[in-house]
Amino acid sequence: MDKKWMILTCFFSVLTFVSSVICSCLVFYNEKARTDLNSSKVLATGNIYKSASIIYNQDNKLNLSGLSPGHTIEKSFSITNNYSNTIKYDIVWDKVITTWNYSDNGLSAHPEEFIYSLSCTNGEKIDNKQMPVEERDYNILSSLELKTNKSNECTIKITFINNGLDQSYNLNKSFSGTYKIVVKE
Predict the structure, then answer these.
(1) How far apart are CA 98 and CA 5, in angstroms?
(2) What is the number of other CB atoms lying within 10 angstroms of the CB of residue 69?
(3) How far is 118 from 75, CA to CA, in rounded Å?
(4) Cα separations in angstroms, 87 against 38, 105, 159
């Protein structure tokens, strides 16, 4: 009788060990896949990013050239806080390369005709701000807060303003860069 209990105990011990290893591997690879997916889009200090979900409904990269006056692009994204505390985050421009600040063929540059607006469900809003024109990071909005188990959905709208005049001086301009959410403590 003792031999049967010993075999049964060994069998369940091995079964428990194997299932623990499998579950640990699944958790590790699931977290690694989620982190890899968000790594180019989310920067965070500590481990807060593991509890903050950021979804870009379209690609958060912009490669714009050959725009005509009146052209508008809209993109949306959301951030959800699953962390046990309120989180702080910034929305920033990154890796900006643009020719909107350079004169062409003796014609003055008019970067003020290339603007963006941002509106979020939390009430944050920016209207008609000039797009960045230098190769450095730009804050769109800073030190925003998001309470536990809340979401904030935002839409960014980028426009080449049509002023009703000849704007051929801006027709060969280009812009590339990303907008992203940076989660902080």
Answers:
(1) 74
(2) 17
(3) 10
(4) 17, 48, 31
Select from 167, 93, 102, 159 the least CA-distant residue to 132: 93
pLDDT tens digits for 109-166?
A: 888 999 999 999 999 999 999 999 876 658 899 999 999 999 999 999 999 999 999 8
- The residues near 3 (Cβ < 8 Å, ≥ 6 apart) are none
Q: How far apart are CA 173 and CA 155, in angstroms?
A: 24
Please give the model's pTM, rounded to 2 decimal places.
0.70
Q: SS3 letters for 131-166?
A: CCCCCCCEEEEEEEEECCCEEEEEEEEEEECCCCCC
β-pair type (52-56, 125-130): unpaired
| Geometric angle at alpha carbon 124, from 60 and 151, rounded to 5° | 65
